[in-house]
Design a protein that fits this description.
Blueprint (H helix, E strand, L loop, with lengths): L4 E5 L3 H13 L3 E5 L2 H11 L3 E5 L5 H11 L6 E5 L5 H8 L4 E4 L4 H26 L8 E3 L2 E4 L4 E4 L2 E2 L4 H11 L8 H9 L8 H14 L9 E4 L3 E4 L3
Parallel strand pairs: 1-2, 1-3, 3-4, 4-5
Antiparallel strand pairs: 6-7, 7-8, 8-9, 10-11
Helix pairs in contact: 1-5, 2-3, 6-7, 6-8
């Protein structure tokens, strides 16, 4: 079986070498880029399974790279940032990144996060392949005004398509398959990202917020995804 391919987009040689060594030691094939143009060239050449993307400072170039790569690929993107509370992280997640890790980081933790994101992506693709073998409508999750097709990666709201990034879609599928069940942020992270959050639930909050904005005509009076204050979230179509 071929090794999984990781693309590192990082302009600091020391960090780039640290990432490369940790991932290579764990059996990954690693490719490097220092800016958006190199990242696009490398991506086209090797089609990586996952991208590790530094977002600054300054953040503009990293965010532009995130948006560009996400525009034509669903490969997981894990952001690397020096600031845990940074608005740059939130913007990166809104642009379609899947996860983030903050400098300084333990290389073993980073490798574990890479494995978790790859594992969840593989499970998601396997489930879609299995559902595709069923009759066309069997895999569709349907509620009043909302239709979710995991095979075609498609969501229709009142008959109109809604564009979701991968993690938004995975969250929606997970919640919609378990209507009425209240999930904590930690439980959602474990189910959709494939590992314990260790307090890193901001990425779940951002993806849920974006999902609700796209899905709910009035986010302050939700129809589908409800926040149970102090507990978590549930899918409960009204």
């Amino acid at each position: 079986m071929a090794n999984r391919k990781i693309l590192i987009v990082e302009d600091e040689p020391e960090i780039r070498n640290l990432l490369n060594n940790a991932l290579t030691d764990d059996g990954f094939d690693v490719y490097e880029a220092t800016d958006m143009q190199e990242a696009i060239t490398q991506f086209d050449a090797v089609e990586p399974d996952l991208i590790l993307l530094d977002i600054g400072p300054p953040a503009t170039a990293g965010l532009d790279t995130c948006a560009e790569l996400r525009s034509y690929s669903n490969a997981p993107i894990v952001l690397i940032s020096s600031r845990s509370g940074s608005s740059d992280i939130i913007q990166g997640l809104e642009l379609g990144a899947d996860d983030y890790i903050v400098k300084p980081f333990d290389p073993e933790v980073l490798v574990a996060r890479v494995h978790a994101n790859l594992r969840r992506t593989a499970i998601f693709r396997r489930d879609r392949k299995w559902e595709a073998s069923a009759p066309a409508k069997d895999g569709v999750i349907a509620y009043a005004g909302l239709e979710i097709d995991p095979v075609r990666f498609q969501v229709l709201l009142d008959g109109k398509p809604i564009a979701l990034v991968t993690k938004e879609f995975q969250l929606l599928v997970h919640l919609a398959r378990n209507p009425g069940t209240v999930y904590t942020l930690e439980e959602l992270y474990a189910s959709v990202w494939g590992m314990e959050s260790h307090g890193n639930t901001r990425t779940v909050i951002v993806h849920l917020s974006n999902l609700r904005k796209k899905l709910e005509p009035l986010p302050t009076r939700p129809t589908y995804i409800h926040n149970i204050r102090g507990v978590g979230y549930k899918f409960d179509p009204k």
